[in-house]
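Structure request: L-threonylcarbamoyladenylate synthase, Saccharopolyspora gloriosae.
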Amino acid sequence: MSTVYDCNRPDDREAGLAAAANTVRAGGLVVLPTDTVYGIGADAFDSDAVGSLLSAKGRGRDMPVPVLVGSWSTIDGLVQSVSRQARSLVEAFWPGGLSLVLPQAPSLAWDLGDTRGTVNLRMPLHPVALDLLREVGPMAVSSANRTGHPPASAAEQAREQLGESVGVYLDGGPAGEPVASTIVDLTQPQPRVLREGAVTLAELSEVLGVEVEPAA
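Returned structure:
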């Protein structure tokens, strides 16, 4: 049975984070607030849990799950190499609304879907999300909604769509105006913006010192 924890109350927040961490370690699913929209998350290294996440959303392997991290340094163990461009963007915009697509480390034993050897990484700017990520490590996290339905900007909206497929709901209050993260592909020498969102093309260009354009 699902449990909802009000993370705006200190006692509930502590209990909720402990329950969420235990659920993730046991291969279950949790809903957590982020700085964009609510997310549904699982242990990134538990392929069965990631499969359950995709099933709960009604989503196929052709739409692989992004990974959220709790610190800058975490990415060093997840990607083949951290380029100067990637490091500059991390330092400028993490935690925040920027997702980076990078070649994943070949040694990683995970299955996030059909990623073609890449991983989509982000560090969210939300204290509840960061506390959980620092406790359990990298999590596969997608928007907390059924595929084809609007993303959830509140825990109750997520629960209405995902129900008992999720073990723990961490309620951090309304997410505000939902703004998707900007996604930058750094798998090629020239950065490509796959989706413009919270971080603008002008901001990216200023940090990188080159003109950044959306992918064709």
